[in-house]
Amino acid sequence: MFAMAHRPPATRLCEEVRPDPEPGPGEVRLAVQACGVCRTDLHVVDGELAPVRPSVVPGHEIVGRVEAIGPGVQGLRLGDRLGAPWLGETCGRCRYCLAGEENLCDAPGFNGWTRDGGYADKAVVRADFCFLIPQRFSDAEAAPLLCAGLIGYRCWRKAAEARPVERLGLYGFGAAAHLLAQLALFDGQSVYAFTRSGDATAQALALELGCVWAGSSDEAPPESLDAAIIFAPVGALVPAALKAVRKGGTVVCGGIHMSDIPAFPYAILWQERRLVSVANLTRQDGRDYLPLAAKAGVRPHVTVYELKDANAALQDLRDGAFAGAAVLRP
């Protein structure tokens, strides 16, 4: 197999040729067709998520065809097209797993962080943590759905737990936000997009998709919001989002990593505003989201890179050089 591997503390990936991995009990080997480039991959490569292995292949938005099946796997055939997301395994025994909250498992495993991921032409994954991909999505389109889409969906549901949402703000209009915006618009919500200052490309994409307003994250929206979701890993956006939501509104922090949140006056949290976070995902999220995304006509905007250009794709993500999502293709 050919892989782009990360060896901490380096901030670049190196090319490696390895023997094809063999699937163990409950696992399958995928011939990778596409793998999304996610901001969490940057957190792994840049050391913002502490390394847990001396070397790891990043990538957790994996789309591939089953080419080898390990002992005990049922219900899958060679050639099936599967998607493998960030959550790669759980213990199944802790209080969270037993309560149906496997996203909070005490001993989880993650593709591309604790397990080798999809920046490769082969990947071994747990079969029971994969999803069949709806036929309407191409390989490249399906890849971003497996993290950006799923995390956006979980944030969206969290945002509406307390009160109905008619006006939704999205801070950081990248892969997750451009997918969620399409779902929210399909549901009849008005979407307000907040981008980096001067990011005309992302703002143009937001308006093209149907958002009612697009502007800089340091601007106030023209109307108060019912809820806001922060996808950008910038803690300073939390006070800004709290100011933008109405009384009783909710602000959801959707990233796995965020810079420190600055001190802010209690007045902008008062009046029953809620500040919550989202962690990881559950398999049920995938089962619910993927058919819904297909029904809603969600169409990922992707920029495709060859696998050997993974470092360039990561740098372009750092620099905000593309709108939508990036995908590696072996």
Question: Can you put this structure into words, describing what you see?
Answer:
This protein has 330 residues and is an alpha/beta fold. It folds into two domains: 195 residues, Alpha-Beta Complex (Quinone Oxidoreductase, Chain A, domain 1), CATH 3.90.180.10; 129 residues, 3-Layer(aba) Sandwich (Rossmann fold), CATH 3.40.50.720. Helices cover 26% and strands 26% of the residues. The chain is built from eight helices and 17 strands. Strands 3, 4, 5, 8, 9, 16 and 17 form a seven-stranded mixed β-sheet that branches. Strands 12-11-10-13-14-15 form a six-stranded parallel β-sheet, sandwiched between helices. It has a two-stranded antiparallel sheet with strand order 1-2. Helix 3 packs across helix 4 and helix 3 crosses helix 7.
